Automatic annotation (TrEMBL):
GO terms for molecular function: ATP binding; ATP hydrolysis activity. Residues 14-258 form the ABC transporter domain. The lineage of its organism: Bacteria, Bacillati, Actinomycetota, Actinomycetes, Micrococcales. Pfam families: ABC_tran. The keyword ATP-binding applies. This is Arabinose import ATP-binding protein AraG. The gene is araG. InterPro entries: AAA+_ATPase (IPR003593), ABC_carbohydrate_import_ATPase (IPR050107), ABC_transporter-like_ATP-bd (IPR003439), ABC_transporter-like_CS (IPR017871), P-loop_NTPase (IPR027417). Keywords: ATP-binding, Hydrolase, Nucleotide-binding. It comes from the Bacteria. Its EC number is 3.6.3.17. CDD domains: ABC_Carb_Monos_I. The keyword Hydrolase applies.
Length: 260
């Protein structure tokens, strides 16, 4: 079922209500609202300076809004730092990926969340439970249908760009119990690898985890998004669907040539 047709009767997983963020005299966000529902991909598009990055930072704890509120499962939340959002189940994959090239796939998936050995070895000697991390990493990759990464002991530096992106997305999916945010996930990839990442986004959505996708690639947006939030000059210009509007119309709304 298309998420866009059922949003009226469901409680959003994540909501932003009239968010305001200013930087001196510069207005980053001017009363922006947004709803994200379970099992959907919500794309956020807009020209440079439209407020996309500021909006995402406010949703994920990297920035604190000056006004408005955030709701998670209908309850108010206050993120003071990115770790607060991560603790609440919101994971973000930035364009830079933030992976460690020298570490293997499993170690990267548990980067900053390493599992310790049970008992004295883990508590006193702080020994890592490498077997458990590798087993869990394989299970997560299998769950998401990532068939290009069979060996979780391979160093990240030996992987292609698409495979690195898959690791970062799998890491977010493993710990993002509520929301996964993807910032330009196909920007640096070729056609084949970009398509693989799009399939991964669809599979992630199909597990029920809602995805926020920030992208400049309109064909990719229209292929995977259930709804499209359009930012313009710090405000929400409108929310459309791939069924209700064409790519040309979306661009026209984004640039101000057309209004909703």
């Amino acid at each position: 079922m298309n998420a866009a047709t059922t949003t009226e009767t469901r409680t959003p997983v994540l909501s932003a209500k009239r968010l305001v963020k200013t930087y001196g005299h510069v207005v980053g966000l001017d009363g922006v609202s947004l709803d994200l529902y379970a099992g959907e991909v919500l794309a956020i598009i807009g020209d440079n300076g439209a407020g996309k990055t500021t909006l995402i930072k406010c949703l994920t704890g990297a920035e604190i809004p000056d006004g408005g509120e955030l709701l998670l499962d209908g309850k108010p939340v206050h993120f003071r730092r990115p770790q607060d959002a991560r603790d609440a189940g919101i994971e973000t994959v930035y364009q830079s990926l933030a992976v460690s090239p020298a570490l293997d796939v499993a170690s990267n998936m548990y980067l900053g969340r390493e599992l310790r050995r049970p008992g004295f070895l883990g508590s006193a000697l702080r020994m890592l439970d490498t077997k458990a991390m590798r087993r869990n990493a394989r299970e997560e990759l299998t769950r998401l249908g990532i068939s290009t990464l069979q060996d979780v002991t391979v160093p990240i530096e030996n992987l292609s760009g698409g495979q690195r992106q898959a690791v970062a997305v799998a890491r977010a999916a493993a710990f993002g119990s509520k929301v996964v945010v993807l910032d330009e996930p196909t920007a640096a990839l070729g056609v084949r690898e970009g398509n693989q990442v799009l399939e991964l986004i669809k599979r992630l959505r199909d597990t029920g985890v809602p995805v926020i996708l920030i992208s400049h690639n309109m064909p990719h947006v229209f292929e995977v998004a259930d709804r499209i939030h359009i930012q313009r000059l710090g405000k929400r210009a409108g929310t459309i669907t791939p069924q209700s509007h064409t790519m040309g119309e979306a661009v026209a709304i984004m640039t101000g040539a057309q209004t909703l």
